[in-house]
Every structure is written in structure tokens, then in C-alpha cells.
Amino acid sequence: HKSQLEQVGQLLRAKPGDPTLMKLYDDLKKVVELTEDLKKTQEEKKASEVNVGDRCEAVWSEDGKWYTARIDAKDPESKHFNVTFLVYGNAGKVAAENIRPYRHAKKSQVRVGMEVRACYETDGRFYPATVETITTGGLYRVAFRGYNYKVELPLSDILPIKQANDDAMPEKAVIPEHLKIKSTDNEKQKDLKKKKIKAIKSKFRKRKAEMETERKKNNWKQFQNGGKKKLKALKKKRKSIFASPDSVDGRVGVVGSGKAMTNFQDRTRHTFDGADQQQELQLP
């Protein structure tokens, strides 16, 4: 609606006093004001419902994407939350509008043998694990990758191994609006912002390098698994009944039938005697 309001404003400047454009401008202005009030009310409600220790999804300031997080502290006056991102371990300060409800994995994403991210109760963070079994009570027994530790967890403590934003890293680090240097900033403010921007870019490069390493590792793992599957398929392939014998004495026959090769008598030239000739000459 804001963009529409701006467009109507431009038309109104070109045609000042136009009654139709003036009415449309006033109506759009009311809609924009109502929308902003509604958004403000929703943010206040959201801030009051979220408690310290709750899981949520929050926007990471460096790339503007949503990730699983935990509320560590909240400031009702500024409507900002201190959060820890539970997959990568980063911490940050997030505005109320950048907080939304926590979403765990779906049942279709958690099956026996699948790779997932499971919650480690000691620090509450999520680590790569493999689903080993599903209990009759609906719990998932997982084994953490690289650790000799297994645990049974509810579905609410499991995330899919591939996060929605794993392939969505931007080319450059995203700098929040409040850190962008303005002409009205004094030297002290500029220096402070520069330091924070430098830290954000450094973390972004590190995160991007980690993702690239993980991507290469996953590609190599998929390549190895693909080769193993093909080898397994070749081993299971049944031998053709028309395959050449392994030795010169071998015979071609029905493979796996459980029956022996059919034996045929040797065929030789038949020798006719006198009786045979007489029988052949007799007419009925």
C-alpha cells in the first residue's frame, strides 16, 4: 500500500486538485496507517507471548534469513530479544518483528536411517545425528555423529538435516539498517559502526567457508553412497541363462531352476537292412 500511496502522490503532484486522486490518496493513507497500527499491535502481542528459554525462529542479521533460535533475554521497552541460534551457535539481538514460532521436523523427514539434527540436552543446541529406531511410544532413538552418544527424543527435539536457508546464502554480508553509516553520525559513531560491520563481514566469510566445506563433504558422501549402491546392485544381478560357460566343458542351461541339464542320446546315421526296405515297399 505504501508504494501505491507514493504512486498516487506523484500523480496528484502532476494533477493538483484532482478530486478523484485526492480521495484515492486519502483512502490509501488511512489503509497504510491502519496496517502500521495492526503490525505494531501484533509485535507487542508477540513480544508479550515469547518467554526467556523458548525456542523460536529468528532472522540472522548477516543474511536476513530465518534460523532456529532460543530466547536468552528480552527487553520489553526496546522490543528486542537476545537470542542464540541453536544450529550454528551464533548469538544476536533481534527485533520483535523478526521473531516467529519454532518449527520442528515433520514425520516424513525423520525415518530410520535418515540424517537429522537432534537436540543435545546439555546445551540445548542441535547437532547432526542418525535416526536408528522409532520406539512404540513414538520417540526417536538417534546416534550423534562423531560421538558415542545415543538418546531417545520426541519429534519436537529434532530438525531436518538440511535447513531451509542452507543454499540461500547471499553473495555479500547483509548490513542492518541501524549499522549503516549516515552523514549525521559523528566520528565516534562512525568508528563504532565500522567495527561492527567488520565483525559481521568476518563472521559471514567464516560461515560461507563452513557451508562450502559442508557442501563438498556432502557431495563426496553422495558420490560414495551412489557407487556402493551400484556395486550392490551388480552383485545382486542374476546370471543370464544365455551367458557363456565359465569353462570349455560348461553348458548353457536354465539358471536357478534346480533341475539338471536335459540329456539327449547321441544321434548317428541309421543303417537300413533288407527287412526295412521290404516294409517300405509294401503298400496298404
The gist of it:
The chain is of the alpha+beta class and 284 residues long. Helix content is 36%, strand content 20%.
Radius of gyration, in angstroms, nearest whole number: 37 Å
Would you report the number of β strands?
10
Q: How many angstroms separate the termini?
A: 111 Å
Physical arrangement of strands within the biggest beta sheet: 4-3-2-1-5
* Percent of residues in β-strands: 15-25%
Q: Residue ranges: pLDDT <50 for 5 or more in a row? A: none
Name the structural class.
Answer: alpha+beta
Overall mean pLDDT stands at 77
Number of helices: 4
Describe the largest sheet: 5 strands, antiparallel
| Helix percentage | 25-40%
| Order of H and E elements | HHEEEEEEEEEEHH
Shape: elongated
Would you kindly provide a written description of the structure presented here, covering whatever features stand out?
The structure is a single chain. The protein is an alpha+beta fold. 36% of the residues lie in helices and 20% in strands. The protein contains four helices and ten strands, in the order H-H-E-E-E-E-E-E-E-E-E-E-H-H. The strands form two sheets. Strands 4-3-2-1-5 form a five-stranded antiparallel β-sheet, with no helix packed on it. A hairpin with a 5-residue loop joins strand 7 (126-134) and strand 8 (140-144). The longest helix is centred in the C-terminal third of the chain and has 50 residues, at 187-236. It is elongated. The mean pLDDT is 77.
